[in-house]
């Protein structure tokens, strides 16, 4: 290695003192390389010079995700029937109570109290409408994400990203079913023909019915 000293350096071969910048030794003619004054590579200020070879970054391959499954038309029809039976079993005592009042009044006066029967039918219908809404909206926005009918067949109602829906969205989906039924049921039939088994009410509410 060349030794730099006050603008001069010694030849590595013969030890003759040469001036900085000389290309050859003035005594033996040996080429001066590397250029005097340059910082030798070995004199790097870093005690651990970086390796010229960098380890390749580890590559991770995500596990394959199985294709999503959706609730089809007929299995959802069966689930709706089960839910309708559950709601009507719950509200049936209301109609029976009014019917019993009408029957008791008729037996006491000898005149059938038709008004009690009509009132009972009307109250029952109101209870069915509100009961169906609250039952469906609460169950589908709960941690179960499904009504009892859907749970039997392993179905859940989610948003388009597979997340749990809010009570407001579940409410919107429930009443959008009325529109699906008003157009001759076409909104429900769409379940059998859309790619992700969405009825019109699912498209309007931005929901999916997934099978686990």
Radius of gyration: 43 Å
Strand residues, percent: 5-15%
Q: How many domains would you count in the coordinates?
A: 2
N-to-C series of helices and strands: EEEHHHEHHHE
Distance between the first and last residues' Cα: 74 Å
Shape: rod-shaped
Number of strands: 5
What structural class is derived from the secondary structure elements? Answer: mainly alpha
The strand order across the widest sheet is: 1-2-3
| Uncertain runs | 35-46, 58-65
Helix count equals 6
Task: Quote the average pLDDT.
Answer: 77
Characterize the biggest β-sheet: 3 strands, antiparallel
Percentage of helical residues?
40-55%
Provide key terms for this protein.
212 residues; mainly alpha; three-stranded antiparallel sheet; two-stranded antiparallel ribbon
Tell me about this structure.
The protein has six helices and five strands. It is rod-shaped. The chain is 45% helix and 8% strand. It has 212 residues and is mainly alpha-helical. The relative contact order is 0.10. It folds into two domains: 1-38, no CATH class; 73-211, no CATH class. The longest helix has 37 residues, at 73-109. The chain has helices at 73-109, 114-141, 148-152, 167-182, 186-189, 200-205, and strands spanning 4-5, 8-10, 17-19, 155-159, 207-211.
Topology, please?
Blueprint: E1 4-5, E2 8-10, E3 17-19, H1 73-109, H2 114-141, H3 148-152, E4 155-159, H4 167-182, H5 186-189, H6 200-205, E5 207-211
Antiparallel strand pairs: 1-2, 2-3, 4-5
Helix pairs in contact: 1-2, 2-4
């Amino acid at each position: 290695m060349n030794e730099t000293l006050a603008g001069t350096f010694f030849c590595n071969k013969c030890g003759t003192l040469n001036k900085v910048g000389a290309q050859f030794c003035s005594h033996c003619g040996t080429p001066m390389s590397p250029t005097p004054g340059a910082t030798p590579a070995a004199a790097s200020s870093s005690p651990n010079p970086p390796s010229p070879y960098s380890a390749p970054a580890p590559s991770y391959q995500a596990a394959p995700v199985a294709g999503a499954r959706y609730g089809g038309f007929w299995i959802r029809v069966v689930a709706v029937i089960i839910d309708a039976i559950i709601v009507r079993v719950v509200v049936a005592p209301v109609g029976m109570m009014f019917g019993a009042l009408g029957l008791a009044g008729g037996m006491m006066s000898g005149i059938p109290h038709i008004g009690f029967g009509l009132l009972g039918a009307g109250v029952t219908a109101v209870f069915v409408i509100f009961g169906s809404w609250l039952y469906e909206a609460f169950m589908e926005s709960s941690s179960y994400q499904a009504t009892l009918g859907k749970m039997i067949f392993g179905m859940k109602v989610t948003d388009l990203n597979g997340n749990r829906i809010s009570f407001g969205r579940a409410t919107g989906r429930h009443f959008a079913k009325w529109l699906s039924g008003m157009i001759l049921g076409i909104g429900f039939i769409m379940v059998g023909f859309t790619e992700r088994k969405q009825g019109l009410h699912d498209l309007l509410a931005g929901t999916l019915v997934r099978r686990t």
